[in-house]
Amino acid sequence: MIHGSIALIEEACTSCMICARECPTWCITLTSHQEQTVPAPGSRPRTHNVLDTFTIDWALCMYCGVCIEQCPTDALVWDGAHVPSADRLVDLLYDRGRLVRRDGA
Fold first, then answer.
1. Quick check: helix, strand or coil at residue 7?
2. Residue 41 within any structural domain of the chain
3. Among candidate residues 76, 83, 59, the one with its CA nearest the CA of residue 12
4. Sequence-separated (6 or more) residues with CB below 8 Å from residue 85
5. Which CATH number goes with the domain that contains 29?
6. For residue 24, is it within any domain?
7. What's the pLDDT tens digit per position in 29-47?
8. 69: domain range?
9. 36 beta partners
10. Does residue 17 fall inside a structural domain?
């Protein structure tokens, strides 16, 4: 696989934040909130994290792949498409809408 950019498989992300913590350039930011699941009869309620925002700053990313290697749920993958150049730094901030892998691969 060409190391062009990183894609997010949103349904696999558990918002554990390992990718953001392990990134050597701190180019990944994410926010999440907790939701409570409906317990089965006789069990206690459980909570799980729900992803709110996920952003990669391509101006800071050095394409090392540490985030992909460290993700315990394989929610980050190499995508063949290169990140296009931009005239403004703000245009290199990709939110989860631009990072989500849509081809189902």
1. strand
2. no
3. 76
4. none
5. 3.30.70.3270
6. yes
7. 999 999 988 777 888 888 8
8. 5-36+46-99
9. 47
10. yes
Contacts of residue 102, Cβ cutoff 8 Å, sequence gap at least 6: none
Bridge partners, residue 77, by sequence:
7
The CA distances from residue 36 to 15, 26, 39, 98, in Å, are 15, 30, 9, 28
Encode 44-80 in three state secondary structure.
Answer: CCEEEEEEEEEEEECCCCCCCCHHHHHCCCCCEEEEC
Phi (first) and psi of residue 92, to 5 degrees: -95, 5
Is residue 65 one of the residues assigned to a domain?
A: yes
Q: Which amino acid is at 67?
A: C
Residue given tokens 């245009």 in the structure block: 91
Domain count, the chain: 1
Name every residue whose Cβ is closer than 8 Å to that of residue 39 and which is 6 or more positions away in sequence: 45, 46
Q: What is the pLDDT of residues 58-85, one digit of tens each?
A: 999 999 999 999 999 999 999 877 888 8
| Ramachandran assignment for 76, one of left (phi > 0), alpha (psi -120 to 50 degrees), beta (any other) | beta
